């Protein structure tokens, strides 16, 4: 959500709200307008022959959603067996996709004037997925490009409508 606020000393400020989450020690944000919902761990149905970062499919009230592991997508080590993933379901051009993340954060509102380009020292896997950063107290908020994130080697992940079966996604 973009808001405009008036501040007598700084003129007009534009603010944006981001839904945040953690993957390993990295702190990410997605524009709240792109987030469909946030869910605790969901049962996954494996998809044979899917790329390694596609951990499976989840059924959200009849809508079949592809689950992409953000650790794998960022080239990070797998999460510990006792640690369950959370689901950040986002809307992309092809439909809904679940991003499997370590922990869900809060919704933060930041001033667009604090926006900067991604730092050069980011790992190449992460750098291609980051639109920019916001410097916050004690940490960086990495703004995720959701469209690029769901593009897996052979193109965007398969997104299925409510009436398609998982076997149809492979054809």
UniProtKB/TrEMBL annotation:
Gene3D superfamilies: CheA-289, Domain 4, SH3 Domains
GO cellular component, one term: cytosol
Domain of life, source organism: Bacteria
One annotated GO biological process: chemotaxis
CheW-like domain boundaries: 15-155
Pfam (any one): CheW
InterPro entries attached to this UniProt entry: CheW, CheW-like_dom_sf, CheW-lke_dom
Record's protein name: Chemotaxis protein CheW
